[in-house]
């Protein structure tokens, strides 16, 4: 039965339910069980003692709470795993984007420093090559 509660927790997570919905569903289940016990007691003509009534109530409450706790714990665990996965994907994207931004910026800084040197400015072919590199990396950044 516990495994079914875990399965339900995973299912409700996949269905994008909320914890509040799960709790409400268990409240409804408890109401259904209570109504069922009352109906069956009347139908069968039973007259349980007060102690038997309290014992039945205790067992039903314990069972439904155990199932609810297991379902909610599984649901929350699935939710936390999804958040951790999403955070890892965001972190990987940020690292990639950071690298992609740093690479052309480093090239631009190097090219700008090279243009400041008099020996480079004296050579038009080197100046043209550095200018083309600057243009290429600026376009890449834009």
Would you mind describing this structure in some detail?
- The chain is an all-alpha fold and about 140 residues long.
- It has one domain.
- The chain is built from 5 helices and no strands.
- Helix 1 packs across helix 3, helix 2 packs antiparallel against helix 3 and helix 3 packs antiparallel against helix 5.
Summarize the structure.
The chain has 142 residues and is an all-alpha fold. The protein has five helices and no strands.
What keyword list fits this structure?
rod-shaped; single chain; mainly alpha; 142 residues
Helix and strand element order: HHHHH
What percent of residues adopt helix (DSSP H or I)? over 70%
Structural class: mainly alpha
Fraction in beta strands:
under 5%
Biggest sheet character:
none
Task: Specify the number of helices.
Answer: 5
- What would you report as the Rg, rounded to the nearest angstrom? 34 Å
Mean pLDDT across every amino acid position = 91
Report the span from N to C terminus. Answer: 58 Å
Oligomer type: single chain
Tell me the overall shape.
rod-shaped
How many structural domains can be distinguished in the coordinates?
1
Poorly predicted runs are none
Total beta-strand segments: 0
């Amino acid at each position: 039965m516990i495994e079914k509660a875990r399965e339900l927790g995973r299912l409700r997570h996949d269905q994008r339910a909320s914890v509040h919905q799960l709790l409400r569903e268990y409240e409804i289940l408890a109401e259904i069980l209570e109504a069922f016990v009352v109906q069956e007691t009347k139908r069968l003509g039973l007259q349980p003692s007060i102690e038997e009534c309290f014992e039945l109530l205790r067992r039903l409450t314990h069972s439904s709470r155990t199932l609810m706790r297991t379902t909610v714990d599984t649901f929350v665990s699935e939710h936390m795993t999804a958040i951790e996965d999403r955070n890892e994907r965001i972190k990987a994207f940020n690292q990639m984007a950071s690298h992609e931004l740093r690479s052309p910026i480093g090239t631009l800084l190097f090219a700008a420093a090279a243009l400041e040197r008099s020996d480079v400015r004296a050579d038009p072919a080197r100046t043209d090559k550095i200018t083309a590199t600057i243009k290429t990396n600026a376009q890449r950044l834009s």
